[in-house]
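FORM 7B: Structural annotation worksheet

SECTION A. Query
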Amino acid sequence: MTKALESLDTSRSLAELNPRIGEKVQIETRAPRARYSVQLLGYRENGSLMVSAPKSSVVNTGAQVTVRLMTGNFICAFSARILKIQTSPFAYWHLEYPKTTEVRRIRSHTRVPVNLLVSIDEFEQGKGLRHDWPINAYCTDISLSGACVDAPVALGKQGDKLFMTTRFSVAGVDQVILTTALIRSVQPQEGSVSTVVSHGLEFLDLDDDTHLILAGFVYQQFLIETGNLEILSV
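SECTION B. Predicted structure
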């Protein structure tokens, strides 16, 4: 997720981030190794953090956990100790209030890592470098503005236009998009067993429907990467 996030120069306190009650919180336990999605119930500065208890867990009071949550335009993470496990009047945990949190800002054009099979075709027939269109390639990351595509051959030179077609699932519904893309960079990968050429593509003239579908997919993948959504078949 490093391509989607950028570090801040200074850490921030949880109070400064001011997360909303009801936000999803990811709890990662160390022994046994497990990950749970719970809700933020409240917090008191220099006191404790209250979260709903996972439906099933075998951790005990005193266990160290890693906590991650998304608030506003930030992702924050910190380590904490479980201070108390309550079962009445409902199940919830008291977590140690963090002295500091590791904070990262979500970039405006967030790229999310993917592994999508894409089909690349020439923009103008007979005008490109190749004559074996269409060419199958793999999209390794994608955003609302562009993508990185790896292919066994150079798909063109910087400034060339191409057509890119790919298929993915958004909320369980299959979608197919076709978009014009401009080659912004062409970079052969060194050290690969077979020839791999990475291409930085910029999407051009997305219509409203395609933009909406792409936005849904990028946001879905971002939530999966940050642990705020269960992994779906994509």
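SECTION C. Observations
The radius of gyration is 22 Å. The helical segments are 14-17, 208-225.

SECTION D. Sign-off
Analyst initials: ____
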